[in-house]
């Protein structure tokens, strides 16, 4: 029997990278998984490759009415939502001197508004079952270790962490059986990481080695390693953990 047997999970950004790895692991552990992506075709393709316990839906996270449509569909189909994973995100380089308004707004709309809309629209359904439920927001090591070249990204992730702690407090103080935590990955091998390598302007091997050296463990992580942390937070094994920050970063948050 899997750790998530009987639970219903929704994963944003589920057609790629960490979101996909999380959706796959959750389904293996017995959850019914609603995997969302901006493109319905992408979401469906990945869901079909997982099997009948997964379904794919279109969701632009920066659009509140998209969230309402998806949550309504989950409510109609299963009548409950036990796990919400906000994995969709964007990361585009830029310091305070070269971050234009468009870059700033894109980070805030996706990484912050998207998580706010997701948590707010999902909460009534998560609350209604009275069963232990879990919100998992994918932040970043950047939330505690700022980089001058990722100003807007870092700001959005740090704010997301503060928002998650506030949600955790609100739920605990009101007696809701809902926990909320953030995962703080370091460099993880996903399409977003590949983009970050390109953004350095260096040859790929050199950029890759540079990123590895920022991690005391000397390597980049795998999406499956993040998925294991998400599984722990999603399952009842983490029943006394809320408002927490789980690092999956090869020690990069504690580097000198
Ligand atoms: N890869 C890393 O090194 C790394 C490190 C720390 C944190 N993170 C965070 O982890 C999360 C997952 O990142 P990943 O590396 O798997 O990235 P990824 O690019 O592989 O996947 C992110 C997904 O989010 C989707 N997305 C982007 N904007 C969206 C929007 N407006 N609406 C709906 N979907 C949208 C993308 O299409 C993509 O499918 C992100 O929040 C990212 O910031 C990544």
Automatic annotation (TrEMBL):
Enzyme Commission identifier(s): 1.1.1.51
In terms of SMART domains, this protein maps to: PKS_KR
Q: Which InterPro entries match?
A: KR_dom, NAD(P)-bd_dom_sf, Sc_DH/Rdtase_CS, SDR_fam
Task: Check the record and name the Pfam families matching this protein.
Answer: adh_short_C2
Q: Name one GO molecular function term.
A: oxidoreductase activity, acting on the CH-OH group of donors, NAD or NADP as acceptor
What EC class is this?
oxidoreductase
Note the superkingdom of the native organism: Bacteria
**Is the keyword Oxidoreductase in the record?**
yes
Q: What are the record keywords, sorted?
A: Oxidoreductase, Plasmid
Question: What positions does the domain Ketoreductase occupy?
Answer: 7-144
Family membership, please give it. Belongs to the short-chain dehydrogenases/reductases (SDR) family.
Question: What protein am I looking at?
Answer: 3-beta-hydroxysteroid dehydrogenase
Q: What is the lineage of its organism?
A: Bacteria, Pseudomonadati, Pseudomonadota, Betaproteobacteria, Burkholderiales
């Amino acid at each position: 029997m899997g750790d998530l047997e009987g639970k219903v999970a929704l994963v944003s950004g589920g057609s790629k990278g960490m979101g996909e790895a999380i959706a796959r692991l959750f389904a293996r552990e017995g959850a019914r998984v609603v995997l969302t992506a901006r493109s319905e075709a992408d979401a469906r393709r990945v869901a079909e490759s997982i099997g009948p316990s997964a379904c794919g839906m279109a969701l632009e996270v920066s659009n509140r009415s998209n969230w309402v449509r998806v949550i309504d569909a989950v409510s109609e189909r299963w009548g409950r939502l036990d796990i919400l994973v906000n994995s969709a995100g964007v990361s585009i380089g830029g310091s305070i001197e070269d971050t234009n308004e468009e870059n700033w707004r894109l980070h805030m709309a996706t990484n912050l508004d998207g998580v706010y809309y997701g948590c707010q629209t999902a909460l009534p359904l998560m609350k209604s079952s009275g069963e232990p439920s879990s919100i998992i927001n994918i932040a970043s090591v950047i939330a505690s270790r700022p980089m001058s070249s990722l100003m807007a990204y870092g700001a959005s992730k740090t704010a997301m962490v503060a928002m998650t702690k506030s949600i955790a407090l609100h739920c605990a103080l009101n007696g809701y059986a809902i926990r909320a935590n953030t995962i703080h990955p370091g460099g993880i091998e996903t399409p977003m990481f590949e983009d970050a390598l390109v953004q350095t302007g260096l040859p790929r091997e050199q950029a890759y080695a540079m990123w590895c050296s920022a991690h005391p463990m000397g390597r980049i992580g795998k999406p499956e390693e993040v998925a294991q942390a998400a599984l722990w937070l999603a399952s009842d094994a983490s029943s006394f953990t809320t408002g927490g920050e789980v690092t999956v970063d090869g020690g990069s948050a504690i580097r000198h």
